[in-house]
Structure prediction request, 452 residues.
Amino acid sequence: MASAAEQLAANLNFGAFQRATELHKRLWFTLGALIVYRLGTFIPIPGIDSAAFAANFQNSAQGMLGMFNTFSGGAVERMAIFALNVMPYISASIIVQLMQTIYGPWEKLKKEGGEAGRKQLNQYTRYLTVVLALAQSFGIAVGLQNSQGGLVTDPGPFFLLTTVATLTGGTMFLMWLGEQVTSRGVGNGVSLIIFAGIIAAMPSAIGRMLTLAQTGELSPFIALGIIVLLAAVVVFIVFMERSQRRLLIQYPKRQVGNRMFGGESSFLPLKINTAGVIPPIFASSLLLLPTTAAQFLQSADMPAWLAWLPTFAGSLSQGQPLFMALYAFLIIFFTFFYTSVMFNPEETAENLRKYGGFLPGIRPGKRTADYLDYVLTRLTVIGAAYITLVCLLPEFLVAQSGAMTSFYLGGTSVLIAVTVTMDTVAQIQSHLLAHQYEGLIKKSKLRGGRSR
Prediction:
């Protein structure tokens, strides 16, 4: 007769390997979607002289345009059909979420609309994405046509029309692809699209840095220091992302007949970084809105009242004080903002009260909500400082030493890569655990049927 341990092992194997067909399909779908995205980053828009554009891009690749190129997986460098990437969608999401806090009808739709309200807000986000993509693609088309160097082979209205249609269509396709990955694949689709572009270029960025060190253009000690710092940042990110504050939740005992029930205790985990990787992505997206056009238009003929534009574009380059100040401010703002969106202390306190749970020494209701807000605010301060430090550490190194690091090796890119990897692995583990439970339940039902 098989022991209990052998039966449990058989059930776990049944759940993990024979019932994981859905997970396999989700993984293959995610991989296929990312391959389609990467192929699109190599297809240039029509009417562009690729060689002339690549040479012109190198002159402005160290500013915000370089970061835009990082998030788009090199599509900007090649002026591909996915050059805008999902940045208009992210900007639209920011605007819609901000409007939910200040615009009454949308706030009511969020709180009382339920699933239908959420779908309606998502539809507004899509409409706004189209508007932002049209505006940004038109600015890029005009900048390309007016720039010096013969970047456009056949300028004119047809080029403007095709460029706007191509770039806007590419963004809408990526928005749809990201939503499909989220619902039918594994992980957050939009984050995975940005993640794929960063990861694809990291090996070549490391190779270029090692080549510079070998030829003497970069000090070997600086190159070694960058690699050591990169490894230390990865370890620090993993430690901070897994750190949490656990609040003890107690449930009272109750007597039913002659038996006592309840009296258990559990924990409410509060992450230090509740907002995840959203703050640096949102901050980068907002900084890209005004500076994308500035990078293209600074070489064009401008009236006297726009003479400040080249200086402004230069101040938003890597390592400049204005860039670091704006980037840090936006990261901190979106860390607090998105944390408030993700975690509602009043709602959590009300749920605890409904199920009889309470924090020891704190009265249920408003006092519990105030205490949760007190703890969460202090955790968010630590989380905002951690994200800002990781994202701006390479910028401080550039400002102090003058050693130019690649955006692919910057703190923001490493933070996105590590965080998205951890979230995706966690979702895969959740799917495996769910399949194990399904296998156990089905196995027990089959044995129960045979015993009868």
Remarks:
- The first strand starts at residue 244 and ends at 250.
- Confidence is low (pLDDT under 50) at residues 3-19.
- The CA atoms of residues 53 and 151 lie 6 Å apart.
- Strands lie at 244-250, 253-256, 259-262, 265-271.
